[in-house]
Each structure stands twice: as C-alpha cells, then as structure tokens.
Amino acid sequence: MAEAADFQGTRPSPARRWLRRTGAVLAGTPLLAGLLQLPAASPVEAAAPAAPKAASDDGSVAVSVDSLTPGAPAEGDTVTVTGTVTNKGKKAVTKAAVGLRVGPLMDTRSSIDTVAKNSGDVDGPVGSEIDDKYSEKFSKLAPGVSQPYTLSVPVDELDLGQDGVYDLSVTLTGETSDQPWEQTLGVRHTFLPWQPDEADTKTRTTFMWPLISTVHMTAETGSDEEQTPVFLDDELAAEISPGGRLDRMVALGRDLDVTWVIDPDLLASVEAMTTRYEIPGENADDKNAVGGHQEVAKRWLTEVQRAVADKEVVALPFGDPDLASLAHHGTSVTGSLRHLKEATDVASGTVESILHVKPSTDFAWPVEGAVDPSIVKVSTSAGADKVIARGDTFEGGRDLTYTPTAPRPIGGGTTAVVADARLSTVFEGDMTRASASTQAVQRFLAQSLTLALQTDRPRSVVVAPQRTPSAAQAQTMAEAVAALQNSTWSQPQDLTAAAKSKPDPAAGTEVPSASAYPRSLRKQELPRSAFEQIARTQDKLDRFKVILSDQSRVVTPFGRALNRGMAASWRGRPAEAAIYRSGVETYLDTLSSQVRLIEKSETKLSGRSATIPVTVQNNLVQGVEHLVLRLTSTNPTRLEIDGKAFEEQPIAVSGGHSQSVKFTTNANANGRATVVAQLYTQDGRPYGQPVTFDVKVTEITATVMLVIGGGVLLLVLAGFRMYTQRKRAAARKAEERTQDDAADEADVDAGEAQNPEASDRRPTQESAPDTREGAPEQPSDPAPDTAPESADPSGTGERVDR
Length: 802
Fold this sequence. Notes:
Layout: H1 14-27, H2 29-35, H3 43-47, E1 53-54, E2 61-69, E3 78-87, E4 93-106, H4 109-117, E5 128-129, E6 136-141, E7 146-154, E8 164-175, E9 183-194, E10 203-211, E11 217-221, E12 229-231, H5 235-240, H6 245-253, E13 259-262, H7 264-273, E14 278-279, E15 289-290, H8 294-308, E16 313-315, H9 323-330, H10 336-355, E17 363-364, H11 373-381, E18 386-390, E19 407-411, E20 414-419, H12 421-425, H13 434-452, E21 460-463, H14 471-485, E22 490-492, H15 495-500, H16 519-522, H17 528-545, H18 552-564, H19 574-592, E23 595-597, E24 603-606, E25 609-618, E26 624-633, E27 639-641, E28 646-653, E29 657-667, E30 671-681, E31 686-698, H20 702-754, H21 756-760
Parallel strand pairs: 1-9, 10-13, 10-21, 10-22, 13-16, 17-18, 18-20, 24-31
Antiparallel strand pairs: 2-3, 3-7, 4-5, 4-6, 4-8, 8-9, 11-12, 14-15, 19-20, 23-25, 25-29, 26-28, 26-30, 27-29, 30-31
Helix pairs in contact: 6-8, 6-14, 7-8, 7-10, 9-11, 9-17, 10-18, 13-14, 17-18, 17-19
C-alpha cells in the first residue's frame, strides 16, 4: 500500500553513523593532544568513555513492558509503565537504573513497523531521558535474576509536541565488573499515541469479531425420535465452558462496538449439546458415551443472545467453507457449488432461530482475505455481493500517500471490502505473555492514529483479525478495541455501513491475478480429491433418500456434514480432514446397506410353472418405499419370469421388517438357469447389490406320464384280480354248505325209519322254524348263523369292503 516518503523517525543509516562517529573523533583530536600533556590517569579513568555506550544489539539485560496505561493518554494523565528487567549476562550489574526516554515522532506507518521489529535493539536511538527522579534504581542485578519495576510519569513531563505517535522506550543502564562505566545494557521500545483533542474528521473503524470454531459434529445420529447427535469429541464443551476460548470471545465482545461474524455451524453444534448428545468411546468397540455439558451449552447460547442484541451480525455460509479451495480445486467437480449454495441458504435461518436476530448473508470471507478472480467468482456465486479482502493482497492504488477507504467496486455489482493488513495481523502470535500483549495493543493504537493523521478525507477502515483467536489473543483484541473506541481519532462503524460508504476514486479496484495468490496459502488448500469424495457421497445420498418415508432424518444431518467437509478450519490438517470425509461416506454406506435382498441358495422347480420367493429386508428405523424389485432370468429360453425375461414388482417395507415377494416362473426345458434379483429406485437406478442364484428345472415329459399311467393301470388290474379271487372262494364255500345240509337230511330220514318214536319228537311244521333255503322269513325268526370268514384267498370277481 502506497505511503508518504519515510523521513522523520527513521534510524540513521550505517554510513551516516560512520560519518558522525568520524566527525566526533576528528573534533576530539585537539583535546586528545592536550590530554597527552597531562599526568597519566588511572586505568579505570582511562577506559571510561565520555558518554554511555551501548553494550550490544540485543543487550545483556532483557527489558519487558508488561503494561502501559493509559494506552492513549490525554492532557493531565499520568503514564504508568510496569515490567521486569532480567540480567541475561554472566556478570552482575551494579548502579542499575530503569528510566523512560521519549524518542522522535513517527509519522509513517512503516516507521512503526521498523521500531516494532527492532524493539530490543540497544544500538538504536532511544531519545532524550526523562528526569532522573522518575527512574527506578537497583543497587545490584545478579545474573539470571529478574526485578520488577514501575515507572509513573505525568504527561506534562514527557514533553510531547504535535499530535502523532512517539517512540517511548524503557532503558536499563548500569555497570559491570569488566566494563565499569555507565552504559545502556537493555532497552524495550514501545509506542505512545498522542492526540489529546478530538479530531475534526474521525476514522470510522469496523472491527470484525469472529465467532468460529473447528468441526465438531459428525453425520451420525441416534435411532431415537430425537435423533441424538454424535460428536467427534468433547472439545467444544471446553471452548464454551467458563474461561474457554469461545466463552471469553462472547464475554469480551459483549461490551464492544463490533460486528459479530458467526459460523452458523457453531451455533447449531452448541444447540445440539443442550439436549442429549454422544461422543465416541475410547476404543472402536466401545459404545458412544453420553455428553454431560447441557447446562454449559444453554448458558453459552444465552450469553451469545445477550451479546449480539442490537449489534450487527454477519452469518457466514454454514460450516465456513474454504472459498479459495473451492475456487481452485472444486469448481471442476460437478455439484461442488451446489454445496456452497445450500450452506448459504441455511445460514440465515440457523442464526435467526437460535439468536433471534436477522443476520446479513451478503459477505464472503476468504481465508486471510486473499483473493483472485476465481475466488471472487465463487464467493459471489451463492448470493454474496461483498467480498472481504485484505490490503496486503489487494493493491491500494497508484501514487497514494494515504491508506484508502475500505470499499472498492470491482465490477459486476460486487464490492471488495479491503481490510487493513497492519491492523488485522497485529494480534497474531503468542499473546499469553503480558509484554507481547501490551506491545500489540500499543502498536494497534499507533497504526490507527498514524493512519488517521494521513489525510483529512473521511475514510472507513475495516479490521479482520484471525478467524479463531485464542483466549489470550481475544483478550488483547478487546483491550485494543476498547482503547480505540475511547480515543479522539476513531469511531466505531458496522461492516454493512463500511461496505456502503463512498469509495475512494483513487483507490485500486483491480483484483489480483491468480499468480499473485500467496503460495503459503495455496499449499494448505483442500485437494481436488476432497471435492470428488464429497460429490460421490452426495450422489449416494441422492440415491438413498428417494426410498425413505422420512427423508429429513437423513438428508439434514448428511447435508450439513458435507458442508463441514469443506470447512476452512481443515487447512493445515489434511489427515484429519480426510478421516472426517471418509467417516461421512462410510456411515452413509452403512445406512444404505440396511435395505437389502436376502441371499438365496439354489432353487428346484418340478413342473412347468412355479413361484419363486425373494425377500427384502429393511433394518432401518423408518419405512422404505418407491423401490422396485426386478427378477431377471439370464436364460429365458429355459426359464421365463411371468412369460418374459424379467418381472418387476413395487416394494414398500416398514422399518425393522422384511417382505417376501413371489414371482411366477415358467419352465420350457430341463436344466439349470441363473436368476438375478435387483432392487431399483423408481427412476431406474440400481439400489444395493444384486442377489444371484440358480434354479434347477425338472420338467414332466410324455415318457414320464406313460410310466406313471402304466403304474396306475397295474394297480387297477391287481385290485380286480384280488376281487375276482375272493368272489370265487365265497361261491365254493356256499356250495359246500348246501351239500353238507343234504347229507344231514338223508341221515335223519334213515334214522326215523329205524326208530318211529323219534319222529314223534320232531317239531311240527307250524312250531318249528323253516330253515330251508328260500323259505319265507318270519318276524320272530332268529338271525341266520354265518360262518367265520375264511382266510383262504377269495375267488375271482369278489369285492371285499374294508
């Protein structure tokens, strides 16, 4: 970014330092000659220089500035500086004194960068020393020992002049045994912004306050009615617990005039924790453990609702997708932009339903604000018309001596909102040390004031810090924003208002080329294979959802998981990203396989026609429908399915049930035929794996019928022969009985002739029954006496009822 030439406040060049030192030597030559006329001095006196001398570039004593209050003083204030001094050398430091020095005015932003880069350089200029009464003295500073200090100086004693940023340095002077003269042994430079009166034209500053996390939820849900969510881990609970990173972000941002930039996935994940949720067990075979941070989640969401009330909220697309990766590797994969559109569509509803505020979805935020034409095109493809860029990757404009205002029209109705790079990156790094945090705050204020003093033009400045600041970084950011909002040169502004402010006609509007995209960022992008896997999983989801009676139970969790699969938070973690995407696809395959055909063994058919049952099993908790089961004969000349090569039947199976479907088959020839059963969706796409089995056909021929008929005829003839044989046997017995009766009559008549009295004892015809064959039967006659059935074979033609 172009700036005014850097003159005031810069360090002397080596050549100038050499000339200055040479001049001092030449000027002191007459004095040296005179001294030679004097008596010899003691060795110590001879070695002592006329002025303090710097020990080394780093200094043997480390000086830290742990606090500086107020950060931007006004008239009548007292500046208080606290910190520590630590002897890093091997010699004790005696006659040590810590004091403040005010250096020259720094009127360019690059001079501030230079001082910040060399803040511990004891060879650099340190300015004039303030009155000795405001210093703190130590009789001895032993090696390795640290001593705290506190310096308090009224602003009036600092002798500050015109408005601007001054180099304020804390120095430690002292002596060592091998260098027994006063010298500067340690220094720490910091910045003191000075503008006691209200500026006529204040800079309108927008500070983006990001509420973003990494991916925590999986695609897996429970089979219960509430669909209990399953998390990757319980790290989100730590972030939202008291003292956690996200807890601090909310607590610190609540009292600041900032624009909240929120990933809806974070809100959805925390809301899922307010009821029952599960996390994987330690081992793969362990069941999921139940998470127990419901109250923590409820409290955090309540705090967020309070913090964003009456504040501007910008909703990023769901999951905070990596726009640069999508532009460079995903657009060539069919369907990738569809996911960005879906993530944008659900963003507003998610935020509004949880926070009860209507967010803006007009902004796209590529990683670190780095853009090129393809990134801008992808960013605006889902409806956003404002792209947040950053000044170090976006040209400021030719021959500009000031930082231009943030909005830049870049064509096609799109506005690039260019964040200031120096203000946006000052909070990076380790802010757990008080000295680093204080330096960042003072540098932020110094850059802001210097920017404001560049011109009288009204400007809008945007600060876009890192996406996921740590708790310490958030604390530092909050201190800097609070100090800035209490300053005399800046006033807060919403991001939407900044984007709508009048652009600077002299500012550059050309989007950097693809070759200008930072190589370090390109190395961290998601590869093409990531988007191919996401597309493959989406295709499987599209085939699976059409058979479900309640698609939302599957489409919603998997759709959001696919959005998370392209999150910007996966940068620098390629292995974890690949594991997550594979987990989503594998779980979808597991669900899809719960609707399947049961394997069949070989089937035997006897006859020209028969039915073959095929069973469909549904192990899902919900019913499936819109399926078609097709049974196909691979050899229809031998075996037909309902008179043709295949037959289809619609399928609908309730959750947790199975259904058998019967197909009518017709056999045309003996032998083995292969049959294939396959499920299809209604649009004709195969579903699941086919089931193949053999059918063995044994057809009934004419020869077989003759054999069977001959067997039946033989049985009939054998039965008729047995009947006739029994008939003949019964006739012979009747004839033999008649002959026996006639013989008995003859014997009786012969006996009567010999004995007449016996005839008188014979019954008369009226009183004796007539037992002769053919005699009329009387009602009172007893039943005839039949002989037992002979065991001999029956005669031919006899029928025996059995």
